[in-house]
Amino acid sequence: MPQIPPDQIDDILTAASLLITALAGLLGVLLGRNLKTNKTLKKVSNQVSNSHGTNLRDDIDRIAEQIREIKQLLTEDRAALAEVRSNSHDTHKEIFERINQLERPEK
Questions:
Q1: Which residue ranges run through the membrane (predicted)?
Q2: What Å distances lie between residue 12 and 7, 19, 21, CA to CA?
């Protein structure tokens, strides 16, 4: 092992302390960033995680299917209502025609 000259020991110690300080600073930054990332991930996880056993994607798919079924029922109800209105209009027209015939004076 080569001998280190006494006048360079101070330089080596200074370089080693600078390296240790830089590594400690880098480690602090990385740990701080990691803690911040973990904190953010926990917040996001709390927003999208269920408090029950079913999967969020399955819940959304089930709701989407229910909405499609409701839209289909509304379409059917609208068609039925249009038919009822049409029949009602025709029936009222017939009733008014009969009333008009009854109210006409006979000649």
A1: 12-32
A2: 10, 10, 14
Question: Average pLDDT over the chain, rounded to whole?
Answer: 88
Q: Is 86 exposed, middle or buried (0-12, 13-18, 19+ CB in 10 A)?
A: exposed
Question: How would residue 43 be classed by pLDDT, with cut points 50, 70 and 90?
Answer: confident
Nearest CA among 48, 65, 45, 44 for reference residue 56: 48
Statement to judge: residues 46 and 59 lie in one domain: no
Q: Is residue 25 part of a domain?
A: yes
User: Can you give the residue range of the structural domain that contains 69?
Assistant: 55-106
Are both 41 and 67 inside the same structural domain?
A: no
Give the count of alpha carbons within 13 A of 33, CB side only: 6
